[in-house]
Design goal:
binds heme C; metal-binding; mainly alpha; Cytochrome_c_Oxidase_Subunit; 2 domains; Cytochrome Bc1 Complex, Chain D, domain 2
């Protein structure tokens, strides 16, 4: 009996504290302090995905002025604003999922169904569709994205958005583009031995400036200093 009384006194003391904690948590959620993963497609998210995953080939204006087509002469036209193979938003969605596996789509358009979530694919499909309807308005959205600061796992995020295509998911130099960039191939970053300062330099200025291959693009005008520092730390962390 005595024990029971003690217990109830105890829990009576705790209840208000628990309630308070709950209220604080709910307030944080509502004000967006606790990050909620958006599970529905938006144009904003689409612009973000486009900026990270598509500009290398389609260009930061979507006019096909990406780094890769500018470097490789025989590369197919990657202008996405005036393109007409994928007409509807659903066609665009499928092109992103299946890429060059689809009949009539060039093999250099990578199938991205495995790498992006449904929400990301649908968002970027909406974005491309909208970009064709009203280029000015949506290019402005894209530019706004470029100025935003990015999240905390900055190094890894920057790497997966910008470098995987050549250096591969685990840095082994076996990314998709390694099929066409061969001499030299994208560096196996897990066996890289250069100091951090050199990494920062080659990432911002590109290979050519340092007497290396021009296939290693300069990122200085696309990545912020924070992003370059973070991706440098990340590269050092994946060394063998
Ligand atoms: C490695 C380079 C590369 C990347 C990265 C890339 N694409 Fe492409 N994409 C291409 C090429 C090359 C074509 C041209 C295919 C053709 O004309 O047959 C293409 C074609 C397309 C088309 C069809 C254009 C039409 O004629 O209607 C769409 C839509 C498209 N890409 C969307 C995207 C989106 C969205 C992303 C980012 C999520 C993306 N692509 C990333 C290379 C790329
Ligand atoms: C279009 C393909 C491509 C992309 C994208 C790319 N790289 Fe490279 N990278 C290369 C190639 C090719 C080399 C080899 C250059 C050489 O050996 O002359 C290289 C070399 C490097 C090196 C030199 C390593 C060493 O030890 O000497 C670093 C560091 C590097 N890349 C980092 C990055 C980072 C970080 C990104 C993303 C922000 C990136 N790369 C994106 C193609 C690419």
């Amino acid at each position: 009996m005595i024990k029971e009384t003690k217990q109830s006194v105890h829990s009576n003391k705790r209840t208000p504290l628990l309630l308070l904690a709950l209220v604080i948590l709910l307030t944080c959620f509502q004000s967006g302090l606790v990050a909620k993963e958006k599970t529905y497609p938006t144009l904003e998210r689409g612009a973000e995905v486009f900026k990270q995953r598509c500009t290398l080939c389609h260009g930061s204006q979507g006019m096909g002025e990406g780094r890769i087509p500018l470097k490789i002469k025989s590369y197919p036209d990657t202008n996405i604003v005036n393109a007409s193979k994928a007409k509807t938003k659903d066609d665009i969605h499928n092109t992103i999922v299946y890429g060059g596996l689809l009949e009539g789509i060039d093999k250099y358009m990578p199938p991205m169904g495995d790498e992006l979530t449904w929400t990301e694919i649908e968002s970027v499909a909406m974005f491309v569709f909208a970009l064709r309807q009203d280029p000015e308005k949506h290019l402005a959205l894209l530019r706004a994205k470029s100025d935003q600061t990015v999240s905390s796992s900055l190094g890894r995020d920057t790497y997966s958005a910008r470098c995987v295509l050549c250096h591969g998911k685990n840095g082994l130099g076996d990314g998709r583009m390694s099929k066409i960039i061969k001499s030299p191939p994208p560096f196996n970053l897990t066996v890289s031995a250069v100091p951090a300062e050199y990494i920062k330099l080659i990432v911002s200025k590109g290979g050519k400036e340092l007497g290396r291959s021009e296939q290693m693009p300069p990122w200085g005008d696309q990545l912020s200093e924070d992003e370059i520092n973070a991706v440098t730390e990340y590269l050092i962390s994946i060394r063998e």
